C-alpha cells in the first residue's frame, strides 16, 4: 500500500487552509446572497453569548453552544459579526488540522488520504450551506462542522492504524471529536456513538475506546464546572422542546424520501452495494460496521436542511482505504473484488462531486463577488455592519396575499375554515399574508416606529418564526427567548409586550404561537398600538403605554400603507 508522505500531507493541509481560508478573509466583509433569516438567527445568538449569556440557560436553541462560542469569542475580542464568522471557520480548521493529519497519516493510503484531507477542510471552510446552490450563506455552518468531525471520528474508529503506539493520540482525537459533536449538534453524536464504539471493538482498538471515553467524560466534567449542572438540564429541555414541536418536525424530505427520492436513490444504492461488496471481498467486519453506520448517515441527512448526503465522500474514502485489503476472486456478477469496490467508490465520488465542488469554490466565489450595491444586514450596528446583503433582498418588500376577485370567481377565501393556517386572535381573524422578501426593511421600519412611539428599552416578544427586533434598535433582548421559534412560548413570560406582524415571515408559525397564547389567560393582554405593519399588546399590568405620536407624525401616517386588512379591520 502506498502511504502518504507525512510532511507533504501536512503541507497540503496548510496550503488548503491558506488558499481557501485566505480567500474568505481577504474581503473586509461577509456578503451573503441567501438565508438572511438564518444569518439573523446566528447574529441573535452570537451577540447574546458575546454579552455573557449562556446557551440553553439564557437562550433557547437545540444547537449546542460550541457551534457559536468561537464566533462569540471573536466578537468579544472586537471583531465584527461577519469577520468573526469568517475567522472562526479558519480557526476551527487550524485547530482540527493536527487531527486531520494524524488520522490520514496513520490509517489511509495516499489517494484516500488526499481525498479525506480535502473533503474535511472544504466542509470546514465553505461559505455555502451545502448541495449545489451557489448562494453565499452562513446558514447551518454547524452541519458542515458536524460532518467534518464525523469524517475524522469514523475513519479513526473504522480503520485500524497501520502502526503501533498510536492508541493514546487516537483516543484523544476520537474522544475530543465526539465531545465536540455533542456540544455542536447532538444529532451527530446520537447517530454515530454506538457504531463508533462497535467499530473500535471490531478493529481491536479497545485501549483507544477507553481513552476516548475518559476524554469525553473529562470534557463533560469541564463544561459542568464552567457552566454548572443546569447547563445539561437546559440543553436536554431544549432538545425535548424541538422533538415535540409541530413547527419543524423535519426540515426537508420525509425519511423515505431521503432514501428513495430520485436525487438520492443512487446514493442509497451505492451504500447498499458497498456493504455487499465489502463482505464478498472478505472484509466482513468492515462491511458490518458500514452497515451499522448507514442508518446514521441517512438519519443525519434527514435531520439536516437540504438532506445533503455529505457522507458520500466519506463512503468513497472508506472504500478506497479497504481496496488494498480486498481478497482475490470475483463476486456474483463476475467483477473482481477490487473492481467492485473501486467502481463503487467512483460512483460515490461522482455523486458527491457537485456538492464538494460547490463547497470548495464558495470562498473564491465570495472573494470575486461584486458588493458595490450591497447593504448591511443590520443597519446601524457599527462594526457588525460587515455582514452585507443585496439591496434588492434588503429593501424590496414583497408580500404573498390571497387574490380577492369575486367577480371572476376567485374569492380570497379568508374564512377561517377555508385557510390552511387561519390566524385568529382575541376574536379577530387576521389578514392572511406572508412576507416573502424584505425582512430587513420590515424589521427596521417596525423598530423605528416602536422607538418613535416611546417603546425603546422594552422587551418585546415577536409572534413569528424569528423576531430579532432588538438587533435593529434600542430594545432589550428577551431573556430565555428562542431566536428561532420551536414552541412552548420560550421567553414570553419574560416579555413586556407582544408584537404581531400584519404579514409575518411564516403565517403557520404565527398561527401556532397565537393559538398557544390563547390557551393561556389572554385577559392580561391589552392592545396598545396598531399600525399597518404590526399590532402591539402589553402583557400584564405593567406601566401605562407610551403616548403614540400625533396623527400627523410620519410613524402614524405609515398606517395608511396598502397592506391586507383582517376580518375586523374592514371599517
In N-to-C order, the SSE pattern is HEHHHHHHHHHHHHHHEEHEEEEHEEHEEH
Give the low-pLDDT segments: 550-561, 567-571
What is the rounded distance between the termini? 82 Å
Structural class of the helices, strands and pairings?
alpha+beta
What is the number of helical segments per DSSP (H or I, 4+ residues)? 19
Strand order of the largest sheet: 8-9-11-10
Question: Total strand count, please?
Answer: 11
Region (Disordered): 542-571
Keywords: Membrane, Transmembrane, Transmembrane helix
Protein name: DUF2029 domain-containing protein
Biased composition (Basic and acidic residues): 562-571
Concise synopsis of the structure shown:
The chain is of the alpha+beta class and 571 residues long. The protein has helices at 6-25, 36-50, 69-76, 81-107, 110-125, 141-158, 167-184, 186-202, 206-227, 230-243, 255-260, 262-280, 284-303, 311-322, 337-368, 391-395, 439-452, 507-518, 554-557, and strands at residues 30-32, 374-376, 387-390, 398-400, 424-425, 428-429, 434-437, 460-462, 497-501, 525-530, 534-539.
Amino acid at each position: 500500500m502506498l502511504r502518504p508522505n507525512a510532511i507533504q500531507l501536512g503541507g497540503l493541509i496548510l496550503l488548503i487552509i491558506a488558499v481557501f481560508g485566505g480567500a474568505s478573509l481577504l474581503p473586509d466583509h461577509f456578503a451573503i446572497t441567501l438565508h438572511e433569516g438564518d444569518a439573523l438567527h446566528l447574529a441573535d445568538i452570537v451577540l447574546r453569548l458575546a454579552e455573557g449569556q449562556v446557551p440553553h440557560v439564557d437562550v433557547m436553541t437545540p444547537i449546542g453552544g460550541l457551534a457559536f462560542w468561537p464566533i462569540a469569542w471573536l466578537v468579544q475580542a472586537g471583531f465584527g459579526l461577519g469577520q468573526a464568522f469568517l475567522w472562526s471557520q479558519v480557526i476551527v480548521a487550524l485547530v482540527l488540522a493536527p487531527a486531520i493529519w494524524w488520522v490520514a497519516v496513520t490509517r489511509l493510503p495516499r489517494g484516500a488520504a488526499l481525498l479525506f484531507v480535502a473533503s474535511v477542510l472544504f466542509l470546514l471552510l465553505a461559505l455555502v450551506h451545502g448541495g449545489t446552490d451557489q448562494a453565499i450563506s452562513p446558514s447551518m455552518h454547524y452541519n458542515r462542522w458536524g460532518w467534518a468531525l464525523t469524517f475524522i471520528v469514523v475513519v479513526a474508529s473504522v480503520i485500524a492504524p497501520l502502526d503501533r503506539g498510536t492508541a493514546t493520540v487516537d483516543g484523544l482525537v476520537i474522544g475530543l471529536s465526539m465531545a465536540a459533536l455533542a456540544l455542536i449538534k447532538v444529532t451527530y453524536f446520537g447517530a454515530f456513538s454506538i457504531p463508533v464504539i462497535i467499530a473500535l471493538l471490531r478493529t481491536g482498538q479497545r485501549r483507544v475506546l477507553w481513552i476516548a471515553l475518559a476524554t469525553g467524560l473529562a470534557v463533560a466534567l469541564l463544561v459542568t464546572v464552567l457552566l454548572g449542572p443546569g447547563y445539561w438540564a437546559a440543553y436536554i429541555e431544549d432538545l425535548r422542546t424541538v422533538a415535540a414541536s409541530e413547527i419543524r418536525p423535519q426540515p426537508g424530505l420525509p425519511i423515505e424520501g431521503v432514501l428513495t427520492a430520485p436525487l438520492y436513490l443512487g446514493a442509497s444504492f451505492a451504500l447498499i452495494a458497498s456493504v455487499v461488496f465489502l463482505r464478498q471481498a472478505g472484509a466482513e467486519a468492515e462491511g458490518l460496521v458500514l452497515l451499522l453506520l448507514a442508518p446514521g448517515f441517512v438519519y443525519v441527512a434527514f435531520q439536516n436542511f437540504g438532506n445533503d448526503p455529505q457522507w458520500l465522500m466519506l463512503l468513497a474514502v472508506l472504500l478506497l482505504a479497504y481496496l488494498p485489503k480486498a481478497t482475490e476472486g470475483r463476486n456474483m456478477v463476475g467483477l473482481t473484488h477490487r473492481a467492485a469496490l473501486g467502481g463503487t467508490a467512483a460512483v460515490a465520488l461522482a455523486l458527491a462531486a457537485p456538492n464538494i465542488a460547490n463547497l470548495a469554490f464558495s470562498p473564491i466565489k465570495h472573494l470575486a463577488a461584486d458588493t458595490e450595491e450591497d447593504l448591511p444586514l443590520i443597519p446601524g450596528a457599527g462594526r457588525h455592519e460587515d455582514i452585507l446583503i443585496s439591496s434588492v433582498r434588503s429593501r424590496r418588500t414583497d408580500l404573498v396575499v390571497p387574490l380577492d376577485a369575486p367577480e371572476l370567481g376567485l374569492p380570497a377565501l379568508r374564512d377561517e375554515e377555508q385557510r390552511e393556517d387561519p390566524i385568529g386572535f382575541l376574536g379577530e381573524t387576521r389578514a392572511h399574508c406572508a412576507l416573502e422578501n424584505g425582512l430587513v426593511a420590515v424589521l427596521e421600519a417596525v423598530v423605528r416606529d416602536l422607538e418613535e412611539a416611546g417603546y425603546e428599552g422594552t422587551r418585546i416578544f415577536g409572534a413569528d418564526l424569528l423576531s430579532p427586533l432588538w438587533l435593529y434598535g434600542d430594545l432589550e433582548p428577551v431573556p430565555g427567548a428562542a431566536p428561532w421559534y420551536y414552541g412552548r412560548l420560550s421567553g414570553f413570560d419574560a416579555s413586556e409586550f407582544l408584537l404581531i406582524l400584519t404579514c409575518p415571515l411564516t403565517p403557520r408559525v404565527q398561527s401556532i404561537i397565537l393559538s398557544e397564547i390563547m390557551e393561556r389567560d389572554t385577559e392580561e393582554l391589552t392592545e396598545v398600538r396598531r399600525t399597518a405593519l404590526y399590532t402591539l399588546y402589553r402583557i400584564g399590568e405593567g406601566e401605562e403605554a407610551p403616548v403614540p405620536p400625533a396623527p400627523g407624525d410620519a410613524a402614524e401616517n405609515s398606517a395608511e400603507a396598502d397592506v391586507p386588512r383582517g376580518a375586523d379591520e374592514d371599517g
